[in-house]
Amino acid sequence: MAKSRKRSASSKSGPSAKRVTPSTRSSAMHREKRFPMDKIHELLERKFPSGNVKAEAAVFLTAVLEYLAIEILELSTNVARSRSGGRDGVKVTLQDMLQAIEADSETKELIDKVRQANASAK
User: Gene3D superfamilies this protein is in (predicted)?
Assistant: First the structure.
């Protein structure tokens, strides 16, 4: 019985029991940076109302969009660093992103194809 008292005395309860550790904070921040797969699945279902949109399609599209966003952000960060002289605190502007897209031939080709497809769909 003394052991159970010792355990209950040492276990934390109340508001101080929940502590935010650096690992939980970073995992919470990481979760916020994820693309909203549920919303993408809903958009696919709205776009194709007569068909059955599988969850795997939303997962795949989400992964592709996330990859493209990271790729463009990396290119933009490189442009911003070269503009600012390589300092630590770099702000990426819209002009940096546009310049990065124009400088990378593959990304520019992809964006141009998407623009053409959207223009012909209207």
Answer: Histone, subunit A
